[in-house]
Amino acid sequence: MPTSSNFQNVYEAFAASATTHPDKPFLLITASVAQNYDIAAGDISYGQAKIQVDKLAQAYRNAGYVKQTSRPIRVALMVDNRPSFFLHWFALNSLGVSVVPINAEFNAKEQAYLLQQSEACLLVATDCHLERGAEAIRLLATAIPVASDNDPTFPSIGDAENLSAPNTSDECAMLFTSGSTGNPKACLLSNEYYLEMGYWYRDIGGLCELAHAEERLITPLPLTHMNAMATSAMAMVVTAGCLVQLDRFHPKSWWSDVRTSGATICHYLGVMPAILLQMDAATTDADNQIKFGFGAGVNPAHHAKFESRFGFPLIEAWAMTETGSGACIIANHEPRHVGTSCFGKPDPSHVAVRIMDESGQPAEQGELQVRRAGDEPQKGFFTEYYNNPQATAEGWADGWWHTGDVVRRNEDGSLTFVDRSKNIIRRSGENIAALEVEAVLSRHPAPRIVAVTPVPDEIRGEEVMACVILNEDEAPTEDTAMGLFNHVFSELAYYKTPGYIAFVDDMPLTATQKPKRNEIKQLARSLVEDADQAKVFDMRAMKKKPK
Known about the structure:
Layout: H1 10-20, E1 25-29, H2 31-37, E2 42-45, H3 46-62, E3 74-78, H4 83-94, E4 98-101, H5 108-118, E5 122-125, H6 130-137, E6 146-148, E7 171-177, E8 185-190, H7 191-203, E9 216-219, H8 226-238, E10 242-245, H9 251-261, E11 265-269, H10 271-278, E12 292-296, H11 300-310, E13 314-318, E14 329-330, E15 351-356, E16 365-372, E17 384-385, H12 389-395, E18 401-409, E19 415-420, E20 424-427, E21 430-433, H13 434-442, E22 447-457, E23 461-470, H14 478-491, E24 500-503, H15 517-529, E25 535-538
Parallel strand pairs: 3-4, 3-5, 5-6, 9-10, 9-11, 11-12, 12-13, 23-24
Antiparallel strand pairs: 1-2, 7-8, 8-17, 13-14, 15-16, 16-18, 18-19, 20-21, 22-23, 24-25
């Protein structure tokens, strides 16, 4: 059996915990999750989960889904945050097959794009998503089969090759991240990526000390993102802890789920403290077993208020899908500088950091650039952007990963988040590419010029705003705004749709008629603060997940 930090793949780490702690709970399904997903509530032990994982693995093996030398084999998973996600992931991982999580909230066009780019050979969907999955597949140039996550019968792709078990460098998953160039980029993530994330979390200590085989981590975050799939899941796997994976964030049942699950850790995004603070205060607010919250993006004005009211610290951290654990920075030691957007002091034994201004010179405020400390600067990072070597090389220019985040170095060496230099809007934890939304808006006949930018939002951190110069024959009316909104809503996931649409007569442009991003960002903020300056339409109430 490998040592606790010498596993070759994710399945090995899971199997080790299942061997040493078969009766410990691996997953806890709360009553609210059970009701929303129509599954049984209660614990699934490590031993029980391993039996199901191994059964699925045999079914996949019989159908030929195994590691191959000629090409990577990938299976797309569209099962939301259900327990079956982990069962299928670990089963496929044991065979050297990579998984591609698909967001069920995407529309068919967006899902088809992910399936096409990933070159997945099978889509496994929960029963309620089978029709949507089939709709996406009909848009592909070459169709792929669809299977139910509840039926371990998979279409054959040929005889299984008798190859060795997957190793740390083998691909484990492909996650898509919205980039500044528009369409989502496919990040190849290895077994090492996931294992290193678990080891990092296990070993950071301080205010984030993990007790082996004792913790219960509750998270509502989606398994299509690295926080849930890599950070929280792997932390529990390598420490034989219990994962309380919620279907999504439900403010009204949140504290009930926290208390009844016995959760000792929670993962959050900034939108969660903002919403929970809006709820009526109760004498039971601090009645929980949470030792700490782990997350990012809490509103500075909410940070101290939340900790005082609910009785545990919110530990701010920084990472990207691309950096994985290779450059994680976290405020797990005092002073945490609560209420300042500080995300901690980099550990020089783990991560190397430099801050560069726009002229490429070292500065106290500028773009954060990172790499792993020591002789392996890319250890723990993503492998590459799939089929996009130019973007990978640009990200690693000069041997440093260029994050696109603007930070400030404080006197004690800690770092404070200032802004994003890339054209990314971060709304409720989702990264939204401004160029992707602009491209859709530009296909509508009304705009002559359009620029999409973030504006501050008290609850969600940032909101999407579209500044539009209309064609001469178009009127800056509510009907026109609604037409633009519905156009984007039909093309992209609901959260990418503009929350504000402003019709302007002029906007800052370059000599080539491209938006001056920083100036437009300032313009947008002023328009929201003083709507009389232009025709500004607040569409936020319309941004709801389609039923």
